[in-house]
Amino acid sequence: MAEELFDIAREINSLCQYKNAITAPKIVTIGTQSSGKSSLINKLIGFDILPTKTGIATRCPIVFSVTPNESEKPVVKLSNGHQKELIYEGFIENINVIEEINKQTNKNVSDMNVTPIPIHIELKYKNAPTLSFIDLPGLIAIAKTDVGQSKTIIEDIKRIAKTYIQQKSTIVLTVVESKTDLETDIGLSFIKDLEDVDKKEFITVGVLTKPDLLKNGDVINNILDGKISSNISLDNGYFVVNNIDDSIGFYNSLKINNNNRCGSAQLGNYLTTLLTKMIKTDLINIKTQIGELHLQSVKELEELGAEELTDNMKIGLVSKILNDLQVRITESIESSGIEPNTGLKIKNVFNNYLKDLNSLDIFSSVGDKFYTDLLNSFSGYHMTNSIDINKILYKCINENALNPIHTLSLECMNEIIDVIEGMLEHFVKNAKYTHHENILKSLKKYYSNYIIDRKTEVDLEIKRFIKMESCFINTIDEKFVKLIHDFTPVGYVPINTIDSMMSRNLAINNILPESIHDKYIAMIKVICKCYYDTIKKNMFNNVTKSIMLNIIRNIEQNMNYMSVYEFITKDNLTLFQEDISIIERRKELRQLIEQLSNINAKIKKINTKVQINTKVF
């Protein structure tokens, strides 16, 4: 049972290189450099398989497992890296494992330094214990830069350790050299600092090595019996292991009383029992996470699509991408609450355009001299019978008067273009097919060029609207018609009635001039302003409708057909060349899905043994 559970846990933990991977309970060893950590593991597994030289012996995470088999000769399997590239598989007598570990480590990092790239070792031999460990580089206090160590090596080692220790359900085997003042140990201090971090999810087991350094067994007895400060105590207490002489006689010679916590055999049995229990406890949760990760991975792989696409498949994919974008564009424009809320943004631009138009008041700022000269241009106006209102308006509503409206109209159009460009950028970035980056970029470029063409059409129409307003004075606006009728019932201003008539109507508009000349000027201002308001209404209606027709509706209704046509006729099939990262991700997903399926099958196989009923994905 333990072997099967450990096998599942190892496979799950081997998924750590994948994005969104899950983890299973595991044992991680931590300690200071030369604390006897690697020697302890060699003792536990029964082989001198890990480097134990002076200085940094372990320079990368070494993930290894030990399981029993019926072979007369021990078998070892070495793999390098997260992808577990096979180095050697065969009888252990045919390879120097320590040399091979150093050789593979040196491929990933220079001598004297450390790397997070792991080496995997699987050892099988007759009557072997069932164990699984991750041995980490030993902690140090000073970087020896003069002999080639990186000045960041201290933090590099801590960073590697944290990566493994702070994962959920980790058993941290803390190896401490025997001494009276454990509080001075760098490794123990490191673990205690991590325990202070919120949501601690690892548990600790301590191991005292080199007990022969203490001539008095009382200190060790107190540590093993938990008669120590809570600040240096660990979750599962301490064991003591002498790596050179691990016999009961040795521990008895030191007068160590707690035989259950003496020796590598007791420690190995305890760790196996603890790890087995944790894996059993987590199995249901692990099963659920595997199912979720499997579904996510399958979905992502489906979105990435097949590796090799025929030309017809490429054209079909373009149509699918365009159709998806088209639906999103239409929804964003026509529906509320759908990001990026394009319809609301268009409405706000139009509302601001209307507000800016209504705030234009060019006639109130024009000096009276302009109007006096205008009246004088009607030869002898004070001696004639009438003044033609159309001629007055034609003189006043000129190109200069319409320029502010033209400017605001162009600003409105440009703001709408910005909204549409922003919408397209949003959907291209958030499209389902981001792995076809070249296609999306090309589509974005095509959309932008298409919009520029539509913008040119609207620009020309706005110019035409301005020319229309300046070339012919005509309106049926009720407010203006009534104003003119009140001022000039017969279409002109009779001199003999103007005084009483204008006084009454100017008063209505809160204008109270004194002389007849001032009344003429005031009357012209009121009429020009009123007619100018009708132009603003016309421009607002025409410009917004032109924008909606030529830009908004055109994009909604015509872009899908036009874009597909462009892509097919221009034969942009080379755009399907994928980035190498996409190719690698597809390969990674297939490997992950296969591994998850294998793990799931193994869990299903032992479900009856651990009496767990879980649904198989």
Q: What class do helices, strands and sheet pairing give?
A: alpha/beta
CATH superfamily of the largest domain: P-loop containing nucleotide triphosphate hydrolases
The tally of helices reads 18
Reading the helices and strands in chain order gives HEHEEEHEEHEHEHEHHHHHHHHHHHH
Span between termini = 23 Å
Second-tier CATH architecture of the largest domain: 3-Layer(aba) Sandwich
Tell me, rounded to a whole number, the average pLDDT. 81
**What is the name of the CATH topology of the largest domain?**
Rossmann fold
Q: How many distinct domains?
A: 2
* Cα-based radius of gyration, to the nearest Å: 42 Å
How much helicity do the residues have? 55-70%
Query: What is the tally of beta strands?
Result: 9
Keywords: Coiled coil, GTP-binding, Nucleotide-binding
GO cellular component, one term: microtubule
GO molecular function: GTP binding; GTPase activity; microtubule binding
Pfam family, one: Dynamin_M
Describe this structure in words.
InterPro entries: Dynamin (IPR022812), Dynamin_GTPase (IPR001401), Dynamin_N (IPR045063), Dynamin_stalk (IPR000375), G_DYNAMIN_dom (IPR030381), GED (IPR003130), GED_dom (IPR020850), P-loop_NTPase (IPR027417). Keywords: Coiled coil, GTP-binding, Nucleotide-binding. The chain is an alpha/beta fold. It has 2 domains: 2-16 and 27-297 and 596-610, P-loop containing nucleotide triphosphate hydrolases (Rossmann fold, 3-Layer(aba) Sandwich); 317-578, Dynamin, middle domain (Four Helix Bundle (Hemerythrin (Met), subunit A), Up-down Bundle). Helices cover 56% and strands 9% of the residues. It contains 18 helices and 9 strands. The chain has a 9-stranded mixed β-sheet with strand order 4-3-5-2-6-1-7-8-9, sandwiched between helices. A hairpin with a 4-residue loop joins strand 3 (75-80) and strand 4. Helix 10 (342-358) runs antiparallel to helix 17, helix 14 (437-471) packs antiparallel against helix 17 (516-570) and helix 15 runs antiparallel to helix 17. The longest helix has 55 residues, at 516-570. The radius of gyration is 42 Å and the shape is elongated. It starts with a helix and ends in a 7-residue tail after the last helix.
